[in-house]
């Protein structure tokens, strides 16, 4: 009887030790620190609740124990140097590598054992988001923007009512004055004169002979106004400042270039090396959105919500034939019919690289001198406006010949550039002698006004 009780007690102690050891696997790290480390090192390829480039990592410790009977020591080896683990002949390491298209995971030798334990604790027991932070991430910005939009709408409505009431009052005043004038005229006329005026017939010929100078003058003025109107209309054909068409996939430059500080040339790469700044292909979008399948930013445009942005990301997947569940391309693609905004006429030659590379510093400096209240840091903004603040890109300038010529007349050539300093040395010396030592070389002085530079 005593022997049985001893074995029973020993069994309870062993079970207790086993449970405490098992629990310690999940409680040996700091989940909050693990969340920071996960976002910094793992989030590009992994998520807790779905497969991205790599498998989902939610509950990976428990899953690995149940399916492969492997503990956290294996995960430590895999995270620090998965290549060495595969080369050692580890069967499961090779299986994972083969399963995910032989995509080699980056080694993380810089992570300490405690760092990895923190990450694993986060994958096992992720901390609940703080209510204040969650509210700010989902609704704070949207609420602020909505309130601002509502206030603007109220002001506009009040202004409209004031204008309408003013117009009605002016109309009523004019009508009252007209009635009073009619009464005065009637008082000043005798009965005989009123009867005579009522029966008298006046011919158009008499009126014309009497007032022909006035008539001719009016016709001349109308002719001049008509000619000016036609000329002005012709001059503005093809000028679409403010044009901002709706695109098949909603793309907010404010979110990408403004909130996330993405360089313009990451997407419009040919602007630096070619004549045309092309529309980026959908593969460029997929460089980021292969792993970014939902919008978790703080900024929300008024009238838009997270579901809207997530839906637009799904349009990218449909266009490229990307299956986010299997993390593979299906081959079923759809063309995206983007609406072009900026389009130079065929008879105009414009080279982006010449302005973006050779003229970059000169254009930025000239723009900031002329517009000290709206300085720019990227040369693209000189022509395209503050794109990083636009939810929907619009044509920010006239893009007329006069607009271009004015820029060439006021933009100074960057003489700090070694090439320009040597190439235009003689011209600069000549201008100094002619106009004084303080003279500057502007683009028009080096051929910026020659017709053949843009039309040939």
Explained architecture:
With 456 residues, this protein is mainly α. Helix content is 60%, strand content 1%. It is built from 21 helices and two strands. β1 (322-323) and β2 (328-329) form a beta hairpin. α2 packs across α6 (113-124) and α4 crosses α5. Residues 29-127 form the Cytochrome c domain. This is C-type cytochrome.
| Secondary structure: number of strands | 2
What is the strand content? under 5%
The CATH architecture of the largest domain would be Orthogonal Bundle
By DSSP (H or I, 4+ residues per run), the number of helices equals 21
Q: At the fourth CATH level, what is the homologous superfamily of the largest domain?
A: Cytochrome c-like domain
Instruction: Please indicate the count of domains.
Output: 4
SSE succession: HHHHHHHHHHHHHHEEHHHHHHH
- Helical proportion, percent range: 55-70%
Q: What does the average pLDDT come to?
A: 82
Strand order of the largest sheet: 1-2
Stretches where pLDDT falls below 50 for ≥5 residues? 11-27, 132-147
What is the CATH topology classification name of the largest domain? Cytochrome Bc1 Complex, Chain D, domain 2
Structural features:
membrane; Cytochrome Bc1 Complex, Chain D, domain 2; 21 helices; mainly alpha; 2 strands; two-stranded antiparallel ribbon; metal-binding; elongated; 456 residues
Which helices and strands, and how do they pair?
Layout: H1 2-26, H2 31-41, H3 60-68, H4 72-87, H5 91-99, H6 113-124, H7 131-188, H8 191-199, H9 204-235, H10 253-259, H11 264-267, H12 270-273, H13 282-289, H14 306-320, E1 322-323, E2 328-329, H15 352-358, H16 360-370, H17 381-384, H18 401-410, H19 418-423, H20 425-435, H21 451-454
Antiparallel strand pairs: 1-2
Helix pairs in contact: 2-6, 4-5, 13-14, 15-16
């Amino acid at each position: 009887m005593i022997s049985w009780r001893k074995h029973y007690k020993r069994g309870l102690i062993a079970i207790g030790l086993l449970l405490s050891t098992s629990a310690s696997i999940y409680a040996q790290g700091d989940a909050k620190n693990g969340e920071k480390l996960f976002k910094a090192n793992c989030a590009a390829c992994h998520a807790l609740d779905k497969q991205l480039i790599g498998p989902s990592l939610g509950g990976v410790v428990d899953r690995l124990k149940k399916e492969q009977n492997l503990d956290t020591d294996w995960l430590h080896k895999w995270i620090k140097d998965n290549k060495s683990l595969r080369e050692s002949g580890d069967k499961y390491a090779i299986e994972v590598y083969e399963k995910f298209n032989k995509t080699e995971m980056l080694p993380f030798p810089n992570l300490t054992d405690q760092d990895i334990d923190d990450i694993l604790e986060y994958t096992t027991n992720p901390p609940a988001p703080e209510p204040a932070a969650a509210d700010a991430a989902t609704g704070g910005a949207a609420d602020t923007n909505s309130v601002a939009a509502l206030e603007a709408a109220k002001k506009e409505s009040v202004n409209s009512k004031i204008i309408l009431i003013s117009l009605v009052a002016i109309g009523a005043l004019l009508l009252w004055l007209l009635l009073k004038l009619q009464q005065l005229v009637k008082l000043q006329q005798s009965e005989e004169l009123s009867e005579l005026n009522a029966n008298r017939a006046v011919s158009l010929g008499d009126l014309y002979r009497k007032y022909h100078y006035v008539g001719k003058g009016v016709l001349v003025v109308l002719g001049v106004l008509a000619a000016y109107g036609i000329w002005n209309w012709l001059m503005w054909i093809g000028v679409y400042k403010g044009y901002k068409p709706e695109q098949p996939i909603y793309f907010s430059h404010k979110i990408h270039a403004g909130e996330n500080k993405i360089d313009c040339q990451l997407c419009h790469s040919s602007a630096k090396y070619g004549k045309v700044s092309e529309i980026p292909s959908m593969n460029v979008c997929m460089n980021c959105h292969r792993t970014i399948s939902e919008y978790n930013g703080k900024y929300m445009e008024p009238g838009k919500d997270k579901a809207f942005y997530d839906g637009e990301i799904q349009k990218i997947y449909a266009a490229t034939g990307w299956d986010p569940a299997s993390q593979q391309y299906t081959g079923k693609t759809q063309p995206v019919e983007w609406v072009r905004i900026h389009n130079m006429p065929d008879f105009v030659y414009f080279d982006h690289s010449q302005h973006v590379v050779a003229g970059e510093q000169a254009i930025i400096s000239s723009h900031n001198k002329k517009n000290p209240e709206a300085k720019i840091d990227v040369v693209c903004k000189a022509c395209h406006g503050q794109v990083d603040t636009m939810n929907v890109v619009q044509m920010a300038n006239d893009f007329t010949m006069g607009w271009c010529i004015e820029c060439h007349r006021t933009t100074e050539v960057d003489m700090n550039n070694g090439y320009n300093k040597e190439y235009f040395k003689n011209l600069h010396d000549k201008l100094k002698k002619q106009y004084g030592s303080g003279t500057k070389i502007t683009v028009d002085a080096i051929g910026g006004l020659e017709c053949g530079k843009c039309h040939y």
